Structures are given as C-alpha cells and as structure tokens.
Amino acid sequence: MLMKLKYFLLICLSFGVTMGQFWKLNTPSERDLFIMEVRSTMSAGICYKQVEAKVNDPEVRMRTVSFCCPGYKRNRLVRHAVKCDPICTNDCNNGICVAPDYCECYPGYKRENARCIPFY
C-alpha cells in the first residue's frame, strides 16, 4: 500500500510541474504583418468551368471543375485543395508576387521598373 502511494505521489508531482507553463509567442515584425495583410487580400487565382461528367445515366450531367487561371500556377504543396500562386516573370526580391507580373513591395521599398528597390 505504501509503495502504491509513493508511485501515486510521484506521478501527481511529475504532471503538476508541466501543467502551469505558458509560452510567449514572438511579436510579428512589420514585414510579417505586411505579408499577412497582403496575402489576405490577394486573389485566389482559381477559375471554374463546366464539363460533362461521365455517368451511366442517359441524361448528360454537368460538373464544375476548378483550375488555375492564366498567370497562376498550382501550388503542389497543398494537396487537399486547389491553391494557385501568381507567376511573376521578374524576380520579386524585397516584395511579394500578388498577381501575375505584379510585385507588392515590402515596407521601406518602392516599386520602380517592375522591381522593389529601397527608399533612399
């Protein structure tokens, strides 16, 4: 009985140490906040079309299919849904590609000749 009580106290004390811990998250930087805001307003770049579905039923059934619009490419890292990313032919250094061939510059940078350059 005494041995069971020791194990019970040991288990209770072990679990009690970790239960009251809190984690402080890092405060997002100005750039992180900018990226989140820009991405929240970006177009999804997803287009839809109606196609005939193959069914055994004699009447023709139409089905809606989603695909990436022109100027967008499918993001293969997202497997459970269609996610389309815009394509920028020029490099989007110091910015985010938000639409086909359009970069939104990070804070502290300005758009000049389709590139993001620092303010001077």
UniProtKB/TrEMBL annotation:
Keywords: Signal. Residues 1-20 form the signal peptide. It comes from the Eukaryota. It comes from Musca domestica. This is TIL domain-containing protein. InterPro entries: EGF-like_domain. The keyword Signal applies. Gene3D superfamilies: Laminin.
